[in-house]
C-alpha cells in the first residue's frame, strides 16, 4: 500500500499552527478545583507560560489508561516507562496533564474544545474492539 510521511516542521511549531496558548482566566478555570492550594498561582503561571498541545484521546477506559501512561503526579513517584517518569523531575514541571475522572474529562473537553469535535469511527475499530 502507498505511504506518505507527514511532519510539522519547526516553523509550523514555532508559528503555533498546532498549538494553543491560554490566558490566565482560562487556566484558572481549568484548575478551578485547585484554587485553594498554595501552589495554585505558580501552576497557573506555568500553564500560561507558553503554548500547549491540547488533545482528546478516545478509547476503552481511556481516562484510567491515560493516567497510567502519564504516571503519578509527582515525577519522583512515577514509574519508569510513564511519560512523567521518563521525562520529568519536579512536580511543578511534570510535562503532561490528563483528566482524573470521566466527569472531569467531560468538563475539560467542553472547556478546551467548545465547538464539539468531529465524531467519527476508524475503519479498524472492529479489528481492535470485540
Ligand atoms: P494531576 O496533574 O496528576 O491530576 P493534580 O490535579 O492534583 O495532579 O494537580 C495538578 C497539577 O498541580 C499537577 O500536575 C502538578 C501541580 N501540583 C500538584 N500538587 C502539587 C504540589 N504539592 N506542589 C506543587 N505543584 C503541585
Ligand atoms: Mg488533576
Automatic annotation (TrEMBL):
Its cofactor is Mg(2+). Its EC number is 2.7.4.6. ATP binds at residues 9, 39, 67, 73, 84, 94. It catalyses: a 2'-deoxyribonucleoside 5'-diphosphate + ATP = a 2'-deoxyribonucleoside 5'-triphosphate + ADP; a ribonucleoside 5'-diphosphate + ATP = a ribonucleoside 5'-triphosphate + ADP. GO terms for biological process: response to hydrogen peroxide. It is an enzyme of class 2 (transferase). Residues 1-120 form the Nucleoside diphosphate kinase-like domain. One of its GO terms (molecular function) is nucleoside diphosphate kinase activity. The active site is at residue 97. It comes from the Eukaryota. Pfam families: NDK (PF00334). Gene3D superfamilies: Nucleoside diphosphate kinase-like domain. Keywords: ATP-binding, Kinase, Nucleotide-binding, Transferase. Belongs to the NDK family. This is Nucleoside diphosphate kinase. It comes from Gossypium arboreum (Tree cotton).
Amino acid at each position: 500500500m502507498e505511504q506518505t510521511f507527514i511532519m510539522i516542521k519547526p516553523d509550523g511549531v514555532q508559528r503555533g499552527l498546532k498549538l494553543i496558548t491560554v490566558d490566565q482566566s482560562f487556566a484558572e478555570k481549568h484548575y478551578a478545583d485547585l484554587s485553594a492550594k498554595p501552589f495554585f498561582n505558580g501552576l497557573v503561571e506555568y500553564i500560561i507560560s507558553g503554548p500547549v498541545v491540547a488533545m482528546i484521546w478516545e478509547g476503552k477506559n481511556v481516562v484510567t489508561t491515560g493516567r497510567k501512561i502519564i504516571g503519578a503526579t509527582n515525577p519522583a513517584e512515577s514509574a519508569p516507562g510513564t511519560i512523567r517518569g521518563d521525562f520529568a523531575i519536579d512536580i511543578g514541571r511534570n510535562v503532561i496533564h490528563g483528566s482524573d475522572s470521566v466527569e472531569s474529562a467531560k468538563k475539560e473537553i467542553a472547556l478546551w474544545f467548545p465547538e464539539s469535535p468531529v465524531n467519527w469511527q476508524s475503519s479498524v475499530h472492529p479489528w481492535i474492539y470485540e
